[in-house]
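ok trying again, last paste got cut off:
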Amino acid sequence: MKKNPVIICFSLFLIAIIGCAPNNKLPPRSKSADISKRPQWTMNIPDEPEKMYFVGISNFVPSESDARSGAMKSAKEQVAEYLGSEVQSKFKEASRSYGLSSQVVDPKKLELKFREQISEKLVELVKDKKWYLERETDANGMYVYKSFVLATVTLSTVNNHFKNMANTKKEEAIKKAEEANNESTKELWESSIKMWKDLDKDDFFK
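nice, full thing came through this time. structure:
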C-alpha cells in the first residue's frame, strides 16, 4: 500500500513545528535559607569568665561535612589572628615601658613566634561548643550547606602556652646578658629579663 505523499509531508511539517516549539519548562529556582532562624550566638558572641568565644562560618558547599570543616577552619584562623595581634600590641607597650629597642624585644617577631607555637596547638586549643547548619538550593536546584560553629578557647590554656614562650625568652635574655661585651648592652638585656619576669607574674590574656 502506497502512502499518500501529501500525508507524509503534512506529518513531517507537524513534527518540525513541534520540534521548534518553545520549551515552557522553567529552570530550577534557587531557594535561600531563612536567616531569621539563626541562633542568637551566631550574631552576638557570648561573654563568659575564663573563656574566649569565636564564631566560625563556612561558605556554601556541596556537603555538610565540608561545611563543618570550613566553619572550624574559620574559627581557628580567627583565634590565631586575635591572639597574635594581642601579643604584638602588648609587647609594643611593654617594650616602650622598659625602654627596650627592637633589637632586644621585637614585637613583630614575638607575634610570629607565638603564632607559630599556637598554630601547632589549635586542634587542642579550639573546642566546638555549638553548631548550626543552613541548607538552601542553588541555581541548578542542588542542595548546598553553610555551617556556623561557636568555638571556645580556655584562657588558662592559652596563658600556659604564653608562659612557656616567656620562660624560653627569659632564658635567652639571661644568656645574652652574660655574653654582653659592654655595660650598656648588658643593662638592656637585664631590663628584658625583668620584663619577662614581670609578664610571668600575671596572666597575659584576661
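cool. The longest helix spans residues 64-97. The beta strands are 51-57, 127-137, 143-154.
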